[in-house]
Write a structure and sequence with these properties.
The complex is a heterodimer of chains A (about 350) and B (about 500). Chain A contains 14 helices and six strands. Chain A is α+β, with helices and mostly antiparallel strands and about 350 residues long. In chain A, the strands form two sheets. Chain A has a four-stranded antiparallel sheet with strand order 3-4-2-5. A two-stranded parallel ribbon of chain A has the order 1-6. Chain B has helices at about 15-35, 45, 70-85, 110-120, 155-160, 230-240, 280-295, 310-340, 345-370, 375-405, 410-440, 445-475, 480, 490-495, 500, and strands at about 50-55, 90-95, 100-110, 125-135, 180-185, 190-200, 205-215, 220-225, 250-255, 260, 275-280, 300-310. The chains are: A alpha+beta (about 350), B alpha+beta (about 500).
Chain lengths: ~350, ~500
């Protein structure tokens, strides 16, 4: 642990610097690969939507001796239309999922299961989703997403800088794409709980980005009045300075989410807790990546286009004996930070 | 412009802030006991029960009918129906805003199917004269089927083809216009009818109740009273049909396109009060009375979602949620103790205070605004542990950064705070925006999640300002911390400020 703290000190002073901005093409390429894979997975496989989105009924019988075959036979005997999905949940439950049924058919399935397993109708956990309900939920989720992005963009533009808000939104959209892509690829069930997870990730990913950008803003407040660092270098320094914090908070955020996932998947088998925490777990990992590798480079790129920043780069390059060509900014950053100290090898 | 040159405010009194927080906590605890709110209200998914979400059905050309008032009216009618079940703590509420609203009905306990059927009857009640009736099987091609005089051939054909043994014909349509001649099944599917245009409407009934006729043994009946308009309409209807031949002397009570009951009219009833007798059981009589009384919903609804959770599953989910919370909280505390050493105590203390504050708020809000904790809500609170701990880390890392720049702990605690405060405020505000938008755009479980996430983010702000910061201030005056003891979390080794010596 203290080794990590020591690393924090070196990162803070810029003695150890990781190239987040300079090697941005590499990070962009990695992300582009993932986003393309996500789009491919989405268009080829699509998302595996739960009955909440398609309409349908789900019946769970709580009986250790219940078998899949018994449940299937009993429900098939009622003659309900559509495909049946019968699963064992945990060690003592059997779940039957059907297509959209009407009240009479739902009651018939409940009765059949109750008779087959000798349990009361009330003890069968039932979820019935009307066919139009899924559209409603989907529509609301999309409204929520769009509303969220707009409000946050406006807020960040006011609290920070407009270009920071653009960079932050780019990172968030990146996160959503990749997380959804992973769901399509692996074929995890998408339920309303998953959607909650997705939306929470947006908040969390932005939270991470906000903290990094806050440091960036502090470091670049009066940057044009000096000529010690280019904007890109200052951003890179800020990311390095907040790196330990980012690692720490991501870990601390993952611990409770991991606990929910462990308990939800391990003890309950399925349901809200598992779906929610799975989406969060995947999203948090992606969100941490984007707040370090995507948002800051995008911001640096946007700002470096400004004449003031280009002039700054020229001054910095001239000072450090460079050729003075702004095109080489990226290369100039590739050193060991402004102090030009010999890089220390790691402590024992 | 740099904050380093600003005179550091040392006049703030951490002791006083901590004392105020303690007083607030004590006051809240007292309030909990005074109001008797000693247990958190649990949602149906944590204790078992049935919830039904109804969505207004928009028929083409009917978009304007779904007004806020109509939904409010529907809510109060459904509430009366649900209350008639006599289950304590049943709830009926509209969610969403404006015309885009759903009605959510939650009834705890084992009443499952009855609730679904009761609130499912959502269309307007109508009284129609019976023109013809037959057993519920199709009679098309049957030589004995004689067309009924006085109705169109089209209606006769529909009547002949209608198969009441098919489930899809027993769904009710809610689409029957009062002025149309209607072909309908009864609810059990045993009989089908041709019905005349409606003459009396559900809203013209002022009272309905079930009663037991003790003189005629134990026969249950339903008595109903009409308002002025209804009295004259019902009087005219009954005096016209009572002398007609079977089955045209029957008046069908039609709800949602299905015949609930079709009593024979034995005499003209001009008085505005009537009795429906028959071989009712107590439950049937009460349900019919409820339909008559509360049948007149202004809108048709679709059942969006029905969820029936058994008490066993409820208990399982509650335990799982609590276990996940305890596990997450415990692991975060252990991690911060390992990483921040002595400073970890601040994290543990802050998380404990935050947990206590959230729990007290759950209790009080349950009492004040009927807040119920759902599984998604528990998940929201657990996720918020991360957000809360994050605020401490931002602050701690800031203090350490300030010390790396050569400041003393006591100074760093103040200068670090000025910078960390801003970051925490901005970051928490983004979290609040997310929670607020989730709450306003979503329905059901998502709202529960958003609510606890927002609530815990607010609590995080309170705790960071009123507990964490003052506590760190107090601790910075203790030599264990200010001298940089190796276990304090502020040692030069852990700050990495003595690298060169070791290299």
């Amino acid at each position: 642990m203290s080794k990590m703290s020591g690393l924090g000190g070196r990162l803070y002073r810029g003695e150890t610097a990781i190239e987040f901005i300079g090697k941005r093409r590499r990070w962009y390429a990695v992300s582009a690969l993932f986003v393309l894979a996500s789009i491919a997975a989405l268009s080829l496989q699509g998302l595996h939507l739960g009955i909440e989105f398609k309409g349908g009924s789900s019946f769970t019988v709580n009986k250790a001796t219940a078998t899949i075959e018994q449940a299937r036979t009993a429900v098939e005997a009622t003659g309900v239309p559509g495909e049946l999905i019968v699963q064992k949940i945990g060690s003592d439950k059997v779940r039957v999922q059907t297509g959209a049924l009407d009240t009479v058919q739902n009651n018939a399935v409940q009765d059949a299961l109750a008779a087959q397993f000798g349990v009361s109708v009330e003890s069968i956990d039932t979820q019935i989703i009307g066919p139009s309900w899924g559209k409603e939920i989907t529509r609301k989720a999309i409204y929520g997403l769009v509303g969220f992005l707009i409000v946050v963009m406006l807020y960040l533009a006011m609290a920070f800088e407009p270009k920071m808000s653009i960079a932050a939104i780019v990172a968030v959209v990146h996160d959503v794409f990749i997380t959804v892509g992973i769901y399509a690829l692996v074929g995890f069930d998408v339920t309303p709980a998953t959607i909650i997870g997705f939306l929470t990730i947006l908040g969390y990913s932005l939270y991470d980005t906000v903290v990094v950008f806050d440091k960036v803003r502090e470091n670049t407040k009066s940057i044009t009045s000096t000529s010690s660092k280019t904007y890109s270098q200052a951003v890179n320094h800020a990311v390095n300075q907040t790196l330990v914090r980012s690692a720490n908070t991501s870990l601390i955020a993952l611990i409770p989410v991991g606990s929910i996932l462990f308990v939800g998947a391990g003890l309950l088998g399925a349901g809200t807790l598992k779906d929610l925490s799975l989406a969060l777990f995947i999203g948090l990992a992606v969100g941490t990546y984007s707040s370090i590798f995507i948002a800051p480079p995008v911001l640096a790129q946007l700002r470096e286009k400004e004449p003031a920043m280009q002039a700054l780069s020229k001054r910095v390059n001239a000072r450090s004996g460079g050729t003075g060509e702004t095109a080489n900014v990226v290369e100039a950053v590739n050193g060991r930070g402004p102090r030009n100290q010999p890089k220390r090898k790691g402590r024992k | 412009m740099s904050t380093t040159n600003k005179p550091v405010k040392t006049s703030s009194r951490p002791g006083r802030t901590l004392a105020i927080l303690a007083l607030v906590l004590i006051a809240m605890t007292t309030l909990v006991f005074v109001q008797g709110a000693t247990s958190v209200r649990l949602g149906l998914d944590l204790r078992g029960g049935t919830s039904v979400t109804l969505q207004p059905r928009i028929a083409p050309g009917d978009e304007g009918k779904i007004t806020s008032e109509a939904i409010d009216q529907a809510v109060s009618i459904i509430r009366q129906r649900v209350n008639s079940l006599g289950v304590a703590e049943s709830e009926v509420a509209a969610q969403g805003s404006g015309t885009n609203r759903q009605i959510v009905i939650s009834v705890p306990g084992d009443t499952g199917r009855r609730v679904v059927e009761l609130v499912g009857q959502t269309a307007e009640l109508r009284f129609r004269q019976v023109l013809a009736s037959a057993s519920g099987v199709p009679t098309a091609g049957d030589a004995t089927a004689t067309p009924v005089a006085g109705v169109s051939a089209d209606t006769n054909a529909k009547f002949a083809a209608l198969d009441c043994t098919k489930a899809e014909n027993l769904q009710g349509t809610g689409a029957d216009a009062p002025s149309d001649t209607l072909v309908a099944c009864d609810r059990a599917g045993g009989t089908k009818y041709i019905l005349a245009p409606a003459e009396v409407l559900g809203r013209q009934i002022s009272k309905a109740s079930a009663g037991l006729d003790t003189q005629a043994g134990s026969a249950w009946y339903v008595s109903l009273t009409f308002n002025n308009e209804g009295t004259s309409a019902f009087g005219a209807l009954t005096s016209r049909v009572t002398s007609l031949p079977e089955p045209t002397n029957q008046v069908a009570i039609v709800l949602d396109g299905l015949v609930v009951s079709s009593p024979r009219i034995t005499e003209a009833i001009p008085s505005g009060t009537a009795q429906i007798t028959g071989s009712f059981t107590q439950l049937e009589a009460q349900d019919l009375a409820n339909v008559l009384k509360y049948g007149a919903l202004p809108l048709a609804f679709d059942r969006g979602e029905v969820q029936q959770v058994s008490p066993t599953l409820g208990a399982d989910q509650l335990n799982a949620g609590l276990l996940a919370g305890a596990l997450g909280l415990g692991l975060v505390m252990i991690y911060s103790l390992l990483y921040y050493r002595g400073l970890g105590i601040v994290t543990v203390g802050s998380l404990t205070i935050a947990g206590g504050l959230v729990y007290l708020l759950f209790l009080l809000l349950g009492q004040w605004i009927g807040f119920t904790l759902t599984l998604a809500g528990i998940a929201g609170a657990i996720v918020a542990i991360g957000v809360t701990a994050d605020s401490f880390i931002i602050y701690f890392e800031r203090i350490r950064d300030e010390m790396r720049e050569g400041r003393s702990l006591r100074t760093a605690v103040e200068t670090g705070w000025v910078r960390a405060r801003r970051t925490i405020l901005v970051a928490d505000f983004v979290s609040l925006i997310a929670a607020a938008l989730l709450y306003f755009f979503a329905v059901g479980g998502v709202r529960g999640f958003a609510f606890t996430l927002g609530l815990t983010t607010l609590v995080d702000l309170i705790v960071v300002f009123a507990f964490t910061k003052p506590l760190v201030q107090v601790l910075s005056r203790i030599s264990f911390f200010s001298s940089g003891h190796s276990l304090s979390g502020f040692s030069s080794k852990s700050l990495g400020t003595v690298v060169s010596k070791e290299a």
